[in-house]
Here is the input.
Amino acid sequence: MNYAPISASGLQLGWANWHGGETSAQLGAQTGANLSTVSLRWENEGWTADGVIASDKAHFVLRLSAQWAVQQFLLFRDLDEPDLWLANSGGGRWGEMNGAHRTELDGCVDIDLAGTPFTNAIPIRRLPLLVGHSATLRVIAVDVETLAVTIQPQIYTRIDTHRWRYSSMALRGEVEVNVDEMGFVIDEVGAFRRIKNF
Here is the structure.
């Protein structure tokens, strides 16, 4: 494992959208439409990430294996039932809740949501990269507003022990992030900053 293990009691994380000039105290006090949060809990020999993207008025649930491979993804917007439900068989075969096989997604490993940096922590925690090494992944990018699902090749490069770069054609060029001792994004300049109280 690249980074420190997470306590079995779980973890809560939150980020505010980047707005230049705030102090740490101001960021810690932010609430409302510019927050994304996630609560991690250990259950049934894997991790469940329960998150909110307030700007999109969306709630997501990711089921991850102990090795941080995505097993299930559910996205909720206005209804009690998920608007989108995807599951990975473990062999890279993806399907929907109704049993429909999504052949175009087969071979993908990760899910990417633009409204939270949490989904970038999944490959960061899982990839056994040394400093200076890169990996190219086929990622399922989900548009929360339209429910469009597309495949994006993304490149993850470990720049330093706690610094990563990722890029794809859909991103604003290359993005560099600082991560904490557990591999979770602290800040992504121009996009997100970690907050302490939410």
About this structure: Confidence is low (pLDDT under 50) at residues 20-31. The chain is about 5% helix and 45% strand. Residues 11-195 form one domain. The helical segments are 24-28, 118-126.
